């Protein structure tokens, strides 16, 4: 087997905590032929193929590894700040696969224990149902109005920052319909000129964020209070605290700020 003779990157998770190796005052994914910590006997070791076609190995552990001279654990989000971006991306993918693995032990149609057939496919031996990692698609909407943009604070944000309107795609709607609906539901505003900006895997736990730019058309801001605690238009020189740089939302806001110069 290839993995026994070649060094691979190891993605070892305890919940959302990722094991990292300290190296020359930086941190990296552990690299080696053998795993950096011993997995339990019944642990599934997943082969994760990166977008560049490189194979990594991932598994979950039952207890956190205490920090020592060589290793420490950090949250997946925080790993963005110290890992090379390509390694952060692989870690995100591994986290999604481990989340899927943990949540697909039984067939949702008939309750039979599933069997793993491919790196990202399980099959029910009773009814033939095939299970793949599900991805929840969510939109981000950057709404421009003259020289200002709409920023909101959602009650579920992890911090006091403000960001773009966001929401999950519903069955049967296009992404643009989702953008218009979410903006209307959350802020009461009608928008126009909805245009695609970009997208980003969002492994918390298994999402895809798709960003759109749109223009304000009409309406007064009326916040959906169960979800949002604040929301209004801000000009470039009076922006509140913004989301962290790992997010597509921040990339979109930075794009808008750049455009105001
Ligand atoms: Zn079944």
Describe the structure.
About 20% of the residues lie in helices and about 35% in strands. The protein is of the alpha+beta class and about 260 residues long. The protein has 3 domains: about 1-100, Nucleoside Triphosphate Pyrophosphohydrolase, CATH 3.90.79; about 105-135, no CATH class; about 135-260, Nucleoside Triphosphate Pyrophosphohydrolase (Alpha-Beta Complex), CATH 3.90.79.10. Strands 1, 2, 3, 4, 5, 6 and 7 form a 7-stranded mixed sheet that branches. Strands 11, 12, 13, 14, 15 and 16 form a 6-stranded mixed sheet that branches. It has a 3-stranded antiparallel sheet with strand order 8-9-10, with no helix packed on it. The longest helix has 18 residues, at about 85-100. Zinc ion binds near residues 109, 110, 112, 126 and 127.
Task: Please outline what is shown here.
The protein has 261 residues and is an alpha+beta fold.
Average pLDDT figure: 94
Q: Could you name the CATH class of the largest domain?
A: Alpha Beta
Q: Secondary-structure element sequence?
A: EEEEEEEHHEEEEEEHEEEH
Structural class determined from secondary elements: alpha+beta
Q: Give the number of helices.
A: 4
GO cellular component, one term: cytosol
Enzyme class: hydrolase
Keywords: Hydrolase, Magnesium, Metal-binding, NAD
Family: Belongs to the Nudix hydrolase family. NudC subfamily.
């Amino acid at each position: 087997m290839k993995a026994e003779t070649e060094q691979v990157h190891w993605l070892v998770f305890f919940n959302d905590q990722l094991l990292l190796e300290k190296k020359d005052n930086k941190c990296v994914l552990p690299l080696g032929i053998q795993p950096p910590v011993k997995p339990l006997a019944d642990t599934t070791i997943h082969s994760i193929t990166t977008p560049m076609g490189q194979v990594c190995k991932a598994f979950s552990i039952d207890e956190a590894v205490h920090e020592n001279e060589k290793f420490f654990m950090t949250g997946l989000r925080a790993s963005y700040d110290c890992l090379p971006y390509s390694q952060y991306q692989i870690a995100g993918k591994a986290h999604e696969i481990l989340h899927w693995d943990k949540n697909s032990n039984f067939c949702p149609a008939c309750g039979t224990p599933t069997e793993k057939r491919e790196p990202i496919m399980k099959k029910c031996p009773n009814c033939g149902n095939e299970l793949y990692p599900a991805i929840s698609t969510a939109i981000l909407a950057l709404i421009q109005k003259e020289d200002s943009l709409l920023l909101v604070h959602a009650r579920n944000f992890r911090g006091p920052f403000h960001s773009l309107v966001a929401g999950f795609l519903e069955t049967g709607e296009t992404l643009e319909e989702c953008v218009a609906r979410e903006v209307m539901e959350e802020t009461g505003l009608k928008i126009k000129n909805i245009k695609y900006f970009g997208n980003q895997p969002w492994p918390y736990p298994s999402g895809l964020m798709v960003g759109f730019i749109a223009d304000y058309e009409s309406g007064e801001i009326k916040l959906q209070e169960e979800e949002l605690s604040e929301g209004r238009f801000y000009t470039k020189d009076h922006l509140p605290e913004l989301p962290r740089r790992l997010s597509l939302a921040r990339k979109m806001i930075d794009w808008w700020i750049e455009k105001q110069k």
